Amino acid sequence: MYNLTAAGGNANTISGKRLFVYEVVGFHQNSETSQNSFQLRKSGKTLITVPYSRMNQEMRRITQLGGKIVNIFPVGDGRAIPSPQVQASPAKPSAKAKEKTVVPVNTYRPKDPYVGQCLSNDELVREGGIGTCRHLTFDLSAGNLRYLEGQSIGIIPEGLDKNGKPHKLRLYSIASTRHGDHVDDKTVSLCVRQLEYKHPETGETVYGVCSTYLCNLQTGADVKITGPVGKEMLLPEDPNANIIMLATGTGIAPFRAYLWRMFKDNERQKNPDYRFKGLAWLIFGIATTPNILYKEELEELQQRYPDNFRLTYAISREQKNPEGGRMYIQHRVAEHADELWQLIQQENTHTYICGLKGMEDGIDQALTAAAGAGVNWPDYQRQMKRAGRWHVETY
CA 148, CA 177: separation in Å to the nearest integer? Predict the structure, then answer.
């Protein structure tokens, strides 16, 4: 893919035992507030610590007392907090939990790119589909380019631009796991659709510079690679996490990397300490059935792991939405909004959106309806972003 650039819970779960801090304004000293254990600060702000399982109850109580919540953050993020109303003994982290994966960034830069070779360039769109989309694999064996699932690399196309200068790099989401498609730590793969559009003034067909260069790249040809870059779309290390993936077209690229890491046999052998046990749900928007990228492999994983992988298509030119129009990804989100909302409220759920920018508004509308009148979806979404559970890469 090419790219430009809490509430609820159960007190008996791990989520239910976590503590959060509400930063509240609007309280005034009266007979009601004077009986509470928290103190009103001169600044007019009050910090209240509550367990995850009581967040909804505390929100209602704050509202009844005339307060307004202006910020929510988890205990332990470095900010000063008051003595908690409910004290929980934090679990001592294990040595393994303390280990953090080092995220490689900018190993190779535009002025000194890595020059690899194209090992393969395969068509992903089947007969009867629209356009062309290629799966490309590049050799990394002569360099030191390492990456993680969810990162991107830059490609510098050959030739000069209209001003006679070398083309600028384009970023593409990586479609392979950190070990590469050959699981030997020597390759990186991309999913690239050739950009094609009509010029708004002349009506002439225009083709994307870098996407055309890559789609026509011959096996054995050199290619200039930069990066890796990006931390927004990294997969959580927790094997029990729930992963919601909303993709259109080549936005499938990082999700292919996630799913291969979770479920592919050779990847599981390579990563004995990582066994995915959560739920991975991919909602994939495409134009026609022949345009379903990686279709056979995705459906094989769904068959083999029905309890851990759910696959939902939105095929715009073949399926109808409830209003009789084309079926887009936002309609599938609306269709399953209640289930998605229940998942999203779980503290170990991460939501990823990758693909066309236009899909975001429809997704927000569907989840606003699912959340109900008692929840302000934009505020809730911002809380998830601060908690590192809402990830977006659109173009």
Answer: 7
Q: Choose the CATH number for 242-394 among 3.40.50.80, 3.10.180.10, 3.90.650.10, 3.40.50.620.
A: 3.40.50.80
* Domain formed by 114-229, architecture: Beta Barrel (2.40)
Instruction: Give the integer Cα–Cα distance in Å for 216 and 232.
Output: 30
pLDDT tens-place string over residues 100-133: 678 999 999 999 999 999 999 999 999 999 999 9
- DSSP assignment letter at 290: G
CB 285 within 8 A of CB 321: no
pLDDT, residue 53, reads 64
Residue-wise pLDDT tens digits, 244-272: 999 999 999 999 999 999 999 999 999 99
Model-level pTM? 0.74
Task: Report the alpha-carbon distance of residue 41 to residue 318 in Å, rounded.
Answer: 60
Tokens (6 digits) for 369: 């309806």
What residues contact 65, with CB distance under 8 A and at least 6 apart? 27, 32, 33
For 394, other C-beta atoms within 10 Å of its C-beta total 18
| Of 244, 230, 312, residue with least CA distance to 278 | 244
Which of 3.30.1490.170, 3.40.50.10470, 3.20.20.70, 3.30.1660.10 would CATH assign to domain 6-91? 3.30.1490.170
Task: Give me the active site residues, please.
Answer: 172-173, 354, 393, 395
